[in-house]
Amino acid sequence: MKNLFQSCTPRQAVLDGTADVVVNLSDLPRLTEAEAREFLDSNVLTSGMEMLLSQAFARMAGTGSASGIYKLSESMGGGKTQSMIVAGILARFPHLASLVSFKEKLPKAHPDVVAAFTGRATDKKVWVSLGEALGVKFPNDRAPSEEEWRDALKGRQALILLDELAFYLIHASSLGSKDEGTRAATLAGIALTTLFGAVRDYKECKQTVIVIADLQKDWEQGAEELNGASAPVLSDGESARLEVLEHATSLWIARHAHSSHLLTVRLRDLIEGGGRSTVKQ
């Protein structure tokens, strides 16, 4: 009987040191289907991720889920961004859902827009960036109203992914003079608050889903870095966060992975011949 080293051939990604195809949300618009397949192939489905995908796609399909805002809670590295990327991939390529071992089939949604924003994109204004993805040109110098967000999302199956917003607000507050920084972060906070309000309150947005990563330590760090010098900035950012906390469905992402899926994914393509059945057993 062959031993493990004789029976297994490591994946090329292991040998050449390449990481996941997608490293952050900004890669989603440029992702090819082949890259999406490769990413899903190495993804590990957790119960929290499956819950998010099931509820989000049910809302976009118009078949369930009253909540349009989902807040992903977990410690650093717990899988929040990973879950957003999987959601974005399946929204762009719904037919790839068959590659993921869901306990129940994913609701059949056909999103016509996926808008993603990461706070590391400090050269962009969050509302302008999202507007561009939605096909709307929002002005740079003021935040959109709830009605403007409503009109942009009206009747659309839309998935909006927001990551690392605390970092974004902290950076915005540092731009230019104190007053300029305060205004930049305040506009961002208002834009996010009106976006959340539109999705929460308007029936025209009933098939829109917002997924946001909320990391409490980020906000605490933001308060420390701002050091009280720009209290209004933190206040507006906090008001947006509280808006999410009050009306969002909280999901704990890093729950246990389905064990058979975990084993199969991690060793798939490594074992020759009948190895896959051996792994499942």
Provide structural commentary.
49% of the residues lie in helices and 10% in strands. The protein has a single domain, classed as 3-Layer(aba) Sandwich (Rossmann fold), CATH 3.40.50. The longest helix has 24 residues, at 178-201. It starts with a helix and ends with a helix. It has helices at 4-7, 12-16, 33-41, 47-61, 80-92, 126-134, 146-153, 165-173, 178-201, 216-226, 231-247, 259-267, 275-280, and strands at residues 69-73, 113-118, 158-163, 208-213, 249-252. The protein has 281 residues and is of the alpha/beta class. It is globular. The model is unreliable at 225-234 and 272-281 (pLDDT under 50). It is built from 13 helices and five strands. The protein has a five-stranded parallel β-sheet with strand order 2-3-4-1-5, sandwiched between helices. Helix 4 (47-61) runs parallel beside helix 5, helix 7 packs across helix 9 and helix 8 (165-173) runs parallel beside helix 10.
* Helix and strand pattern: HHHHEHEHHEHHEHHEHH
**What is the level-2 CATH architecture name?**
3-Layer(aba) Sandwich
Instruction: Give a count of the beta strands, DSSP E runs of length 2 or more.
Output: 5
Kindly report the CATH topology: Rossmann fold
Radius of gyration computed on alpha carbons: 20 Å
Class of secondary structure makeup = alpha/beta
Give the end-to-end Cα distance, rounded to a whole number of Å: 17 Å
Number of domains: 1
Strand order of the largest sheet: 2-3-4-1-5
Which overall shape is indicated by the principal axes computed on the Cα atoms? globular
* Helicity range: 40-55%
